[in-house]
Amino acid sequence: MIQSLLLSTLMFGALFSVLSISLNLQYARGGMINFGTVAYFAAGAYAYAIFTQEPPSGLDQYAFGFDLPWWAGFLAAGVAATLFALITGWPTLRLRGEYLALTTFAFAEVLHSFLLNERRIGNGSVGLANVERPDLSFFGLDEQIGYAVAACVLMLVTAWLFNRLLASPYGRLVDATRDDETAAEAVGKDTTRTRLQVFVISAIPIGFAGALYAMITTLVSPALFTAEITFFVWIALVLGGERTILGAIIGTMALVFFQELVRMIPFESVRSAQIAASVEEVLTGVLFIIVLRWQPWEKMKRRKGA
Amino acid sequence: MGGMKKVLSGFTALATIASVAVPAVAQADDVTVGVLVPLTGELGEFGKIVAGSVELGVKQINEAGGTKCGMLRTVVADTAGSAEQAIREATKMIDTEGAVALLGPTSGAMVALVDLAKRKETVVMSPYAGTITLNEIGGDYIYRTVSSDLGDGEASGLWLKEKGYKKVAFLVQNEESTISPAQVAQERLKDAGIELTDYVIYNPGQPSYQAELISVLANEPDAIYLAGGQESGVTVLKEAAAGGYGGEWLLTADLAVPEVFDALDPRILNDKAYVEVAQADKSLPEYKAFEAFHKAETGAEPGPFAANSYDMAMLVALALEASDGCTGAAVNSMIRDVTEGGEKVSSFADGKAALADGKDIDYEGASGPLTLDKSGTPAGAYQIMKAVDGAWVDEKFFPASAFE
């Protein structure tokens, strides 16, 4: 039971860490408030599913299924997230602060509504089930371990690349764009382009994470990609402390751990399962409040500093 | 001191929450069966019936001494009608609880669980997932104790024709469990030469369905075929009445629960609404025995799919008893064998005794004969019920032979 808890924490924690690391780049370093993170995640997941899914048959309402291997779908997920970031970034990045936040949120809602109502994309509310996934059972180990490793690899690669990027002169350009656009432009830097670049670069790993999520759950449907994911990642970022990649990862892991912990309890009767269904959300909410109110990581950090 | 008080009050709050939900601990000699049902959401009322009936079956099995693998233990989880939640809970039940079979998913969840069931070698069985998608992909680790929607749609077609409607509109929720019977019924409607005025697919979870109803009611159908869930369906019925619709209704099985009459004014349904549901032949002795057991244990009549749910527990237990192992693969290897060819038995105790004597058995379920076809599906009968004085009463029975 503990092994299963740790494994799912590691798998989903690493997966969502990719989102929080990317958000960290956009917000803490790029100064852009993106409330539409889930949209890039959904774009990646749907692209993966559509590229790997068999052509429609029976009750299927979707129009395209290309039946390609998983790696083609994985690449398509990155491309889809990039394209969506370009489409949404180009008109919205002229906006600042809460205006940008609201516009990105609106874009995410538009995509959600589109996926729900345009059944030719992915069967509408039914979604696409039994999504193709590669066999990751290495050395006779369980597949879950393989997927946890894959999620960790994606997280580490993203963290390493973003770390390198921000430590380079380009990182200083990003910081300058955030801190004082006028000053940056005065020395000949194209801040509009920099903002768009950061926006697009950070969306690519989110798309890949979407593809991995589709492989793990073997399902994509609009109900999986709601604003809840965006806020989850934001809470994780706030929880772990802004501006550091490690903070983003720790915050996400802790949040996922709490959620998995609540879900881990088995119930033997209908009544207890009914109570659990209603208590789960309350308990998760209470844990969020406790953690945000007392911020144990901040305390630990301060003690370490002292 | 104040800090200590805060910590203590925090712990007390957590302990209170934890005490509400007491975790289950598996005994070493138990064999675990997962009950994976929607306890909330569009099919929440069905979930309670299914879980309750599986529990009744498990109780009877354990009273007969349990299986050779040990007593059956159930773990219950709510899918809330979401396929994602079903996959998550199923994975947990298999990996953490060691479940050998998962019983009770709805159509959408069943289809989504196909890959997982085969990968984890765990039997997944449903008492109400009639979706025609499973006609193609079911049969190995994926089974059901209800017939396919081919029969459901056929029965709807027969009924609509028998009622002599000239114009019928279809309102269909976008879910696997509702699209599937509607698609078949629509084809039968065409075969019968009845005019299909509209075929509207709507998304569940909307606060209102007036936009869909306006276009449907504009064509003045004699009857509306509503394939909707227990939440969206009730809203559609209310809004259609408010919009002045006075015609008849044919509702699909999802609305065949008495709670529908609590959720809306019964006058909306009385004498003009019919519901069609897969139903056991109530004249069969196996059904009568189950009905008596159900009444004795719960004090109530069995609800829709109760007999099918009870049969799932019996099939898993008998397959465990008949096989060499105690795993999902063992259940999968024997589940067909216990439903065909051999000595007819109608209870777990009789089946266990016959197997102990080295006989082959053929389990005759409370829901009818359970001989499973290539896709893991039995043949089935259907019942049309009519809304009379705020309750569903039997109107017409279509035996399985009607669809041959």
UniProtKB/TrEMBL annotation, chain B:
UniProt keyword list: Amino-acid transport, Signal, Transport
Pfam families per record: Peripla_BP_6
Entry annotated with the keyword Membrane: no
SUPFAM superfamilies in the cross-refs: Periplasmic binding protein-like I
Signal peptide as annotated in the record: 1-28
Transmembrane segments: none
Domain Leucine-binding protein positions: 31-389
CDD domains noted in UniProt: PBP1_ABC_ligand_binding-like
GO biological process, alphabetically ordered: amino acid transport
Source organism superkingdom: Bacteria
Family: Belongs to the leucine-binding protein family.
Listed name of the protein: ABC transporter substrate-binding protein
Organism: Pacificispira spongiicola
